[in-house]
């Protein structure tokens, strides 16, 4: 049993996120996080990433195991051939079933592409970074020229954040992110009430190169996605905002992308 008086380390933080600590150690970690907001922000980011991953893979829990991988059926079929002693046959079939089942479990869903991928990536980016109280962006509002140069270089085309100040949202900054299709970026905004919205941008890679605006709904996020001339956009907020559709239209109209 872990001594609750021991210093809190990385293993404790990961155990807290994974739910693997006993009650005493969990209380100790919670007290530590309350006194160390920088570490609390890291843990919150891990928890948000875990939640996004669970939602992305939720389809697997609902998919039935293929009948072809039913171990009893495989053993019965192999033994019926009577080509080898039944104990050897059972061992071979079990090994085959384990290998096949592993392949089935590792098989991913049909690739998410187009605006569906933009929606998933934008939601994950918002959950991990927009909720971070310490380091949500790489470049702050006073570094917008550097941010624009970096984003333009990484995405391979001119991209700059739209001005949403008329709608009450100031630019907090942005960062470059990675996807399976290459670099993407996120611009983060905040209003006077502390509500944050994120504008996610990435190249579309030959799918949904131009697409009308579509609503985006998650368990704890909402927003809109669209595409124009090969760039995909996702504007995401953490709660339903009455003016979110208006903000999305404004961002779409004012996006200084050079496209």
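-> sequence recovered:
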């Amino acid at each position: 049993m872990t001594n609750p008086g021991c210093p809190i380390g990385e293993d404790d933080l990961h155990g807290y996120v994974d739910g693997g600590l006993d009650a005493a150690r969990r209380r100790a970690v919670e007290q530590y996080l309350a006194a160390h907001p920088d570490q609390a922000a890291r843990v919150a980011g891990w928890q948000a990433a875990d939640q996004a991953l669970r939602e992305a893979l939720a389809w697997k829990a609902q998919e039935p195991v293929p009948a072809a991988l039913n171990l009893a059926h495989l053993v019965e079929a192999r033994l019926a051939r009577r080509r080898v002693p039944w104990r050897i046959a059972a061992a071979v079939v079990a090994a085959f079933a384990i290998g096949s089942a592993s392949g089935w479990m590792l098989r991913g869903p049909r690739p998410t592409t187009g605006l569906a991928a933009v929606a998933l990536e934008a939601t994950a980016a918002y959950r991990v970074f927009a909720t971070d109280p310490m380091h949500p962006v790489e470049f702050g509002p006073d570094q917008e020229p550097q941010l624009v140069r970096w984003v333009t270089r990484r995405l391979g085309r001119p991209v700059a954040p739209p001005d949403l100040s008329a709608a009450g949202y100031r630019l907090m900054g942005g960062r470059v992110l990675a996807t399976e299709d290459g670099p993407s970026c996120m611009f983060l905004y905040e209003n006077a009430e502390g509500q944050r919205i994120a504008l996610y941008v990435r190249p579309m890679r030959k799918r949904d190169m131009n697409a009308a605006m579509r609503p985006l709904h998650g368990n704890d996020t909402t927003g809109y996605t669209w595409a124009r001339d090969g760039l995909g956009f996702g504007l995401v907020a953490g709660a339903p905002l009455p003016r979110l559709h208006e903000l999305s239209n404004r961002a779409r109209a004012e996006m200084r992308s050079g496209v």
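The longest strand covers residues 170-179.
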